[in-house]
Write a structure and sequence with these properties.
globular; mainly alpha
């Protein structure tokens, strides 16, 4: 009994030390790991399409080639759409800055101020910071072409192995039926979650774009695409995606218009997150809300801002690894939501 009691803190110390070392190591090579993880992420989304084509009696090499061609076309179209919109948006930033200053000056008269605490100057500083931040994001987005090309090429190579990968795994793990069963079950749940999340994000992005087109908000399609992309970030993604169109609505229609746009986007998000997503995903996530929230910051720290986009799939992988050993299964249990029962 004493040995077991003493081994618990020792095990916690050992696992904590290993986690810190692993985190530091992954952060050091985050610029390489990020694109690789995204390539695997896209592979998991597209591989079911390869298998679907094969079930329709399309030859293996042809099905993989068609999916790769589809992915390349989609990537090029997305890059052209985003790049073109961002270049136009970048050119209009000085005009938006003037509109923001005018809006803040009109708003300033309703706020208390003094010589010691000039509210107007503070508002102008905030406005300048927000537009500078937007410009920095645009510049960063326009400089990611090499990374996108690497992701596309890596995903294509992964898809080339999609047809034979299950057979290879089954052959290698034929004497480890339990491990094979766990890997298969986890792979299915992870792919199902990613596909459902992608479908939900697509509906949310299209709904948001239509709403903004009706409201005549500039670059509505771009903000719809941003809503689709940031939908992979739980809790925070909605606010990050809603900020740009709400800001443009403030320029165009004033405070009431901005509130109306925010409420419209919020209703779309409310429907897909609280009605549509639970009905499709059920309890497949099996992660507690606190773990989901903390994973955003952890993977964001390790891989940069893009890590938050794939934080949930990566956390599910970590949970699967912890479940694979009797010594660490208790950690996987701690990651589950309170409502999950074996």
């Amino acid at each position: 009994m004493d040995t077991d009691d003493n081994s618990v803190p020792a095990s916690i110390l050992l696992y904590s030390t290993a986690a810190v070392i692993l985190t530091i190591g992954m952060r050091e090579i985050g610029s390489i790991l990020g694109p690789i993880f995204f390539s695997i992420f896209f592979f998991l989304i597209l591989s079911p399409l390869v298998h679907w084509l094969q079930r329709k009696h399309v030859p293996g090499s042809v099905s993989v080639g068609l999916v790769i061609l589809f992915f390349i076309i989609f990537a090029i179209a997305s890059v052209l759409l985003v790049t073109g919109s961002l270049l136009q948006l970048s050119a209009q930033i000085p005009g938006y800055q003037a509109q923001l200053m005018s809006t803040l000056e009109n708003f300033e008269r309703y706020l208390p101020s003094s010589d010691q605490y000039p509210v107007g100057g503070l508002l102008r500083d905030v406005g300048t910071f927000l537009l500078g931040l937007t410009a920095g994001i645009i510049t960063g987005a326009l400089s990611t072409g090499t990374t996108i090309a690497f992701i596309v090429i890596t995903t294509a190579f992964l898809l080339l192995d999609a047809a034979s990968a299950p057979k290879k795994m089954e052959k290698e793990l034929k004497d480890q039926t339990v491990l094979l069963s766990r890997v298969t079950e986890f792979g299915k749940s992870l792919v199902d979650f990613i596909l459902i999340r992608t479908e939900i994000n697509l509906i949310g992005g299209i709904g948001t774009a239509i709403l903004l087109l009706i409201g005549r908000i500039d670059f509505a399609v771009l903000w719809g695409f941003l809503t689709f992309l940031l939908g992979y970030i739980p809790y925070l993604g909605f606010y990050l995606a809603a900020f740009p169109p709400v800001l443009l609505a403030l320029f165009k229609y004033g405070v009431l218009g901005a509130i109306a746009v925010f409420v419209g986007i919020w209703l779309v998000n409310l429907f897909i997150e609280n009605v549509l997503f639970p009905s499709l995903a059920g309890k497949s996530l099996k992660l507690s809300p606190s773990i989901v929230f903390l994973s955003l910051f952890y993977w964001g720290y390790v891989l940069g801002g893009s890590g938050a986009l794939i934080a949930i799939p990566l956390t599910m992988v970590v949970k699967m690894i912890l479940e694979s050993s009797d010594n660490t299964r208790w950690m996987a249990k701690l990651m589950e939501s309170g409502g999950n029962k074996e």
